[in-house]
Amino acid sequence: MIIVKKIIKKWVAAISLTAAIIIGVSYTPDYFEISKNLDIFNAVYREVNMAYVDDTKPGQLMKTGIEAMLASLDPYTNYYSENDIEDFRMLTTGQYGGIGSQVNDIDGKIIIENPKEGFAAFKAGIRSGDQIIGVNGINVEGKRSDEISSLLKGNAGTPIKLKLLKAGQTTPVELNLVREEIKEKAVPYYGMLPNGETGYIKLISFTENCSGEVKDALLELKGKGCKSIVLDLRENLGGLLHEAVNIVNFFVTKGQEVVFTKGKISEWDKSYLAVNNPIDTVVPLVVLVNENSASASEIVSGALQDLDRALIIGKRTYGKGLVQQTKPLVYNAQVKITVAKYYIPSGRCVQALDYSNKDEEGRVEKVPDSLITAFKTKGGRVVYDGAGITPDVKTIDEKFSHILISLISKNHIFNYATKYYLAHPQLAPPASFNLSDAEYADFIAYLTDKNYNYKTRSELELEDLKKNTEEEKYFADIKPEYEALLNKMVSNKKDDLIKHKKQIKEYLEEEITSRYYFQKGRIEFSLKNDDDLKEGLRLLSDQNKVKIILTSSEKATKPFNTKKKF
Question: Which of the following is catalytic: 101, 128, 295, 301?
């Protein structure tokens, strides 16, 4: 206990010194509050570690405290311990050390999912559907996928031994692999679309040098004679701000302001300009976005919209107008802090949630409509702040049916794709592959003894009706009608595999395609049934319509490029 007390005293002294340094350089009027609360925190931490009845695991206790503190600010201010740095590096660079494959918990087993072409797992013949039962001599049956994922990752060049049960086989095999530096491609697919005139680029993240990947794709497509471009930012949650600026720069003139940031500290009052010569300032450009296009995706789509340089198609974007900076800490830890808000060329900020104002229960509210302000694009069109990027052309989002959600969540789509792959050595190219009616009937037969129970919204509402009428003593009077209606719904659900055949079949075809052609094939196949893309191509073929959209105007309360007051 004496040794423990000495260690704690040294730790408290170190924290107190750090606090003094922080207070000395922060120039904040709240220095007394900071000092007082650090003393309180130190005291609580010391007493809990010394007196709590069970082992407190001091490191985990402190991590919990730090994460809870930061969670009270916003979801983007995060702490990364030394053990988390590999995951953090993956987020910012797209790189990590490992075998190049995801794993998932399926039916109580650790199953390989989506091995990446060209990396260790792929080169060793490991495919989706294979089961991992051992890692470096450790039996992993019964463990969770996140535990296995940490075992698979490690420094590039280090050996790893896997014990696998290959899909369709009953005898395990052992494979010796060497971990590699895995680099996730920010542009997993690009190519000419079937009309022979439009180039398509899929950008999935804003990691280091993603702009280089976009540039290479753009130049290659121009070399093939593309007359228009579709940049797909759907499901792209963002990343590095300077990469977003570089990508906008490909399409706008040198010297154009792309975004500016404003924070509490003056060093974050910055303007980011297009500093390079553009690649093409006139090629017709469509940008696809949806509700999961965020942050850097919104800088690109918003800046191109504000400059009337691109037509934005899809759904309203997420609404993240905050900028983070990473600060190194002691013991190889890091903290990512929200330091500023960003503003695109019209002067608007797209941040949808106001984290500085929460209700009594700690919930964050959206920016109220009364505070939403209108701004003008370069050509005079009205755009709004405070709620993400509203597309120039909105598309209808097709909702997944309840039965499809159930089939996906219970892994029946994934497992049938494995079965199909084992029975079919070859597959038609993604652009031409389709399941026949007989093959879809085989899928239905496959589901005969499978559990994919689900409740529709109507059934859930019926349950609420029953509960409410029971509480109000009315249920006995309506019970016959209630049960007849419920039975009718249950009977109708039996036909859902046929009723929702088109949607289920498309998802199943996409999963099967990925077994043969991997991520590129999955994306290429999905484009066949992409309504947002079809709308983009329709408009690109009618430049008069595009011109009308990009020149429409109404009165706005803010001029273009509102002057900043730093």
Answer: 295
Terminal-to-terminal C-alpha distance of the chain:
55
Count CB-CB contacts under 10 A for residue 7: 12
User: Does 306 qualify as catalytic in the annotation?
Assistant: yes
Residue appearing with tokens 């701000």:
241
The Cα–Cα gap between 392 and 535 comes to: 12
CB under 8 Å to 423, separation ≥6 — which residues? none
- Supply the pTM of this predicted model: 0.85
Q: How many CB atoms lie within 10 A of CB 53?
A: 5
Tokens 């792929």 correspond to 122
Any bridge partners for residue 271, and if so which? 260
CA-closest candidate to residue 128, choices 168, 159, 91:
168
Strands 311-314 and 285-289: parallel
CA dihedral 293, 295, 300, 305 (to 10 degrees): 80
Backbone angle region of 83, left / alpha / beta, with phi > 0 → left and psi within -120 to 50 → alpha? alpha
Catalytic position from the list 306, 392, 496, 532:
306
Higher pLDDT, 8 or 204: 204
The active-site residue out of 315, 320, 410, 505 is: 320
Instruction: Give the helix ranges, DSSP H, for 367-472.
Output: 402-409, 412-423, 437-446, 457-471
Let me know if 320 is a catalytic residue. yes
Residue in 154, 164, 79, 169 with CA at minimum distance from that of residue 124: 164
Q: Is 105 a catalytic residue?
A: no
Is 162 a residue whose pLDDT tops 70? yes
Indicate the DSSP class of residue 518.
H
pLDDT at 493: 67
Q: What is the chain's alpha carbon radius of gyration, rounded to the nearest angstrom?
A: 28
pLDDT in tens, 21-60: 333 444 455 778 888 888 898 898 899 889 888 888 888 8
CATH topology for 95-183 is Pdz3 Domain (2.30.42)
Q: Can you give the residue ranges of every domain in the chain?
A: 1-56, 95-183, 189-325+338-397, 402-454+500-529, 457-493
Q: How many CA atoms lie within 13 A of 59 on its CB side?
A: 6
Helix (H, G, I), strand (E, B) or coil at 96: strand
Amino acid making up residue 346 = S
Please tell me what DSSP assigns to residue 239: B
Q: Are residues 152 and 178 in contact, defined by beta-carbon separation less than 8 angstroms?
A: no
Strand pairing of 189-192 and 180-183? unpaired
Residue type for position 203? L
Q: 189-325+338-397, what's its fold?
A: 2-enoyl-CoA Hydratase; Chain A, domain 1 (3.90.226)
List the structure tokens of 519. Answer: 């991520």
Q: Is 277 exposed, middle or buried (0-12, 13-18, 19+ CB in 10 A)?
A: exposed
Tokens for 117?
Answer: 């072409």
pLDDT band at 445 (very low <50, low <70, confident <90, very high): very high
Better-predicted residue by pLDDT, 416 or 153: 416
Q: Are 316 and 291 in contact (CB under 8 A)?
A: yes
**Residue 206 DSSP code:** B
CA atoms of 256 and 300, how far apart (whole Å): 13
- Pair of tokens at residue 465: 């009706």
**Residue whose entry in the numeric block shows the structure tokens 């309180």:** 40
Q: How many residues does the chain have?
A: 566
